[in-house]
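Escalation from tier 1.

The customer reports that the assembly of two entities below gives different structure tokens on two consecutive runs. Tier 1 could not reproduce it. I'm attaching the input and our single run for tier 2 to review.
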Amino acid sequence: MKTFKYIWRNIRRNPIRSLLTILSVGFSLALMTVLYGFLASQETWKNGAAQANRIVVMNIQGFSGALPISAVDDVRATQSVAAAVPFAWFGGSYQDEQMPFAQFATDPNSVFDVWPEYSIPPGELTAFKTNRQGCVLDRRIAARRGWKVGDRVQLKGAIYPFDLDLEISGIFDSPKNTDSLYFHWNYLNEGLKQQSYPNIDNAGTIFARISSSDSIPTVIKSIDDKFGSSDTPTRSQTEAAFAQMFVDMLGNVQVLIRNIGLAVVFSLSLVTANSMAMAIRERVTEIAVLKAIGFPRSRVLFMVLGEACTISMLGGFLGVGMGCLFLQGMNRLLPQFFPFTVMEMLGPWISYGLIAAALLGLISGIVPAIRAAQMSVIDGLRRIA
Amino acid sequence: MSNSNAGETVVVVREVCKEFRRDQLTIPVLSGINLQLSEGDYLALMGPSGSGKTTLLNLIAGLDRPTAGDVIVCGQNLGQSSEGELAKWRSRHVGFIFQMYNLIPVLTAYENVELPLTLTSLSRRQRDDHVKAALEVVGLQDRMDHYPRQLSGGQEQRVAIARAIVTDPTLLVADEPTGDLDAKSAGEILELLHRLNTEFRKTIVMVTHDPNAAARARRILHLEKGLLVSEVVSSRAKESVQ
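Tier 1 run:
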């Protein structure tokens, strides 16, 4: 009979208590997995952006400021800029959905030059360029909604007083889920003109691809110097810095989430320790018998710790598994908030979660294990009566 | 089971005193006990509650150390051994039989008997042979897959005896082994102990309140207030001499 068999039988001795302990560890670690997964997704975005030779040009006032559409050509004219496009957030709703997916008004002639890692059939790209009401979208959106080329998509303006009536010209593939739809900037601008909207000819932000990463600092300085004395001074930054800006917006939230995670682990260790202490208290006589027949302290210690670790590891696998399933589900349902797959989001976090579970077992089991190992055989046997 | 020659000294208890401390109080439990047991001896310890019977049994079994004096069992001076050394020594030399059987409820009869063997370097097959042999001695080979809750009190005690003898120890210590059994089961257990003593030459030290149980032993020692007050050679011993 192996030691683990005995440990497993002891776990099954009081199945309800063991199950409740496993579930409490599991649900808490599932919560932690989701929270840390969300944080990690921000890091993933930032790290992914760091590999692209792209910069983002925006008004120095940030998203509240505008950039004239003429600035796009000025950026294009800058040395080492391979391609540049306006990139204006539309933020329209689809039927009853407030934020169905991201929608950007851009230049169909250059958008796939700025993002060369996206692929689209040439015929569909030509159709997109020639159809003023044409749009292209990420294959994942099309698959999720059952859309195909030629279908029409109506988007109701939420920021702008203009509704879009779009025809799907093409479907593109991208290495990661962009959850995005691109349409003609001109179509939006002309529509806004018809509505006498005051803020027309606005490029929103400008995305530009630079021919080599070495040139990026020079290009950024050159663009910002060029617009420095204009009505719309710019703040240019790498795409990675742009992503970092969003991550930084979560600054205190990240600290809060991490601290909540630590508090959850600490409180859980108390719950599990109490459960283990109860289990050992009920088994004082048995432990005394084991020690009487010659079980050394180290083996008793190992058995109790093994039981605590097995329970918390079962909870860990359950929790991390549930967390991953939840994140994967969110990736499918709300890709605009969770644009990456579980492995992209979590990666090492999965092992961190399991290590946290193992540590939880050790912390919660160490005191009952030491008490069991040091327990007097005589005192333990005396409880028989 | 070994069946070596009789006469070899197994237990020597020399001028043993034992005191317990409770807060500031020192409570003497045993005073100046002297005792010697040879291989194949069967000793019954009797006396009123609090007379020190179980304390003496615990000292002989290496579960406790004397305050003064020497307890030498199977050549080992137990008072001078560390906790770890005592645990290892007990696993080799002592088999325990308790009043309440103390089987592990989550293990089958087979697994309970196998438990002491997991401390040895025996292979799985060797352990299996030992366990089956021990269960055969106690007549429970057909119940090896039963859990303790599926056995009667007498059967549980027989499994406990199998667990005690599976490592082939020199010494068996029994603390009121029939105290929780009906007369019939108690008789069967006493008969089994008798067989282990006579057939397998096991040295047995048994604490009991039951004069009938004590009568099965070769020697009966009476303790009172921590002192040995009398030693009786039992009727069984007399019969065997005649």
